[in-house]
Amino acid sequence: MGARRLPRPARRRSRQGPVTRAATENARGVVVGRRPARVRLLWFGIAVAVVALLAFASVVIGSRDVSIADVVAAIGGSVDNTSEAAVAKRLPRTVLALVVGLALGLAGAVMQGVTRNPLADPGILGVNMGASLAIVVGIAWFGLSTATGYLWVATVGAGVAAVFVYAIGSLGRGGATPLKLALAGAATSAALASFVTAISLPRGDISGTVRSWLIGGVGGAGWTSIGQMAPFLAVGVLVSLLSARRLNSLALGDELATGLGERVAVTRAVAALGAVLLCGAATAIAGPIAFVGLVVPHACRLLVGVDHRWLLPFSGVVGAGLVVASDVLGRIVARPGEVDVGIITAILGAPVFIAIVRRRKVSSL
Predict the structure, then answer these.
(1) How many domains does the chain have?
(2) From CA 21, how far away is CA 68, in angstroms rounded?
(3) Which contacts of 262-266 are long-range, i.e. CB under 8 A and separated by 24 or more positions?
(4) DSSP for 316-351?
(5) At residue 47, what are phi and psi to the nearest 5 degrees?
(6) Where in the cell does this protein reside (predicted)?
(7) Residue 228 falls within a domain, yes or no?
(8) Each residue's pLDDT tens digit, 86-100
């Protein structure tokens, strides 16, 4: 005789037990992903090394190539010739590219974790354009002119846009699905971009500056603006990294996260605050650079898995490398001129966005 079959309720309980235990371990950070720690550390070390090489290339490559001796002399404070002067200008530009890329890569990973939306990105969800509109309104109507003012106004604009898009995407049946959030973000970005054009176009005194800033770039960086950005960046990075374990809980779903003692609304609000600070600071200094926050987290998940304790710092490092690489590439392809970073990242990121949208299994994280 064959083995007696268990009654249906007993079989259902036997299947649910291991799943629940695995989910609990996932939420507590015990078992998230299957990549060994040494593999993750290896990839992280490789990423840091590649970013360091890209930063060095950013300093030496441009309309005028410079030598290592010129780099060392410029770092030491000696600016005696044209090459050393070029290095002195490229150093803050390289640092700005690093911190902007770190901010956008980290913010993209946090947004995808908060919304459980694989299409979440500061540009796609309208956050960058919200910050842009706030700055343009401040310049045109309130005489905004300081970098510190840009930072505060951009942060407020980014926060308002994020809340608006999430509220619109949550309407109707099913709540905030990835498709609804992406559509709400795209529509909001288009509307905000129209407002930016309507405000700046009649103002000949600011229209040229606004148009060039909206492309997104790191040229003309200075140590003063980077220093003013640093407190916003530091707070945003700290809040985002401290939210990593709770984002692992959110990945299980709201009901299970609540059952494990997680305050879902508070977790989302705090993590989103970190992302908004990062996006606002990056946009205020460099303009709205798109697709970095979308492409980087997807690439990082392939290397280090879905554990946000690894994914968030890895996304920051890889984001920094992507922006620096885009800046270097923009100098090479149009020598002796240059192509702004925002154009390069759009060319690289648009095909990735299309590929993600076309995947049938992309419904949530």
Answers:
(1) 1
(2) 56
(3) 262/27
(4) HHHHHHHHHHHHHHHHHHTTTS---HHHHHHHHHHH
(5) -60, -45
(6) Cell membrane
(7) yes
(8) 777 888 899 999 999
CA distance 258 to 55: 43
Residues counted in the chain: 365
Q: Distance between CA 247 and CA 113 in Å, rounded?
A: 6
Rounded to a whole number of angstroms, the distance between the first and last alpha carbons of the chain is 45
State the Cα–Cα distance between residues 128 and 72, nearest whole angstrom: 36
Q: pTM for the full model?
A: 0.83
Burial class (CB in 10 A: 0-12, 13-18, 19+), 117: buried
Q: Which two tokens stand for residue 218?
A: 């790191």
Asked, for residue 343, whether it belongs to a domain, the answer is yes
Is there a domain that residue 2 lies in?
A: no
Percent of the chain scored above 90 by pLDDT? 34
Which stretch of 10-24, 154-168, 204-218, 244-258 has the lowest confidence by average pLDDT?
A: 10-24
What sign does the CA torsion over 270, 274, 275, 276 have? Answer: positive
Secondary structure in 3-state letters for 85-148: HHHHHHHHHHHHHHHHHHHHHHHHHHHHHHHCCCCCCCCCCCHHHHHHHHHHHHHHHHCCCCHH
Amino acid at 59: V
Does 302 map to a domain? yes
